[in-house]
Design a protein that fits this description.
Organism: Macrolepiota fuliginosa MF-IS2
Helix content: 10-25%
Low-confidence stretches: 71-76, 88-93
Structural class: mainly beta
Keywords: Calcium, Metal-binding
Mean pLDDT: 83
Number of strands: 6
Number of helices: 2
Protein name: C2 domain-containing protein
Pfam families: C2 (PF00168)
Oligomer: single chain
GO molecular function, one term: metal ion binding
Length: about 140
């Protein structure tokens, strides 16, 4: 008996802007874009033509969150649905792909995009409180 993973909710990521990005272009301004990865699903913003070191995207990216395979197996075997996740940090281990999101910023290039910087973002606060605002340093 197999069952598809249950949808838990939607994660909405708003990529607003960046400040003081390193310049990857020797001549002219770079065309930066962001790539966001949640549970292996990749979505990207548009490239800001001549966005340089201070681009503004103001784009919304949506990701469907699914329950973890371990919980799916438990629910399928026992025949009863698992309890609702508690509102503490431990309850969100049930999300497929874990509690992290990866974000990377690239300088668009027809041959091969140049990585400007990337970071891994902990989603625990978002998953427990429902939303969060924050800035992230892309080393």
């Amino acid at each position: 008996m197999s069952s598809a993973p249950r949808e838990i909710g939607t994660l909405i990521v708003v990529v607003l802007k960046a400040n003081h990005l390193p310049n990857k272009r020797h001549i002219g301004k770079q065309d930066p874009y962001c790539l966001v990865v949640v549970n292996g699903e990749k979505k990207r913003t548009k490239a800001i033509k001549r966005g340089g070191q201070h681009p503004e995207w103001d784009e919304e990216l949506r990701f469907t969150l699914l329950e973890d395979d371990d919980d799916l197996l438990t629910r399928t075997v026992s025949g009863t649905p698992p309890p609702l996740p508690p509102k503490d940090n431990q309850g969100w281990k049930r999300i497929r792909g874990g509690n992290t999101m990866k974000i990377a910023c690239y300088a668009d290039d027809p041959r091969e995009p140049d990585l400007i910087g990337d970071a891994e973002v902990d989603l625990t606060e978002v998953l427990t409180k429902g939303e969060t605002d924050g800035s992230f340093i892309l080393p």
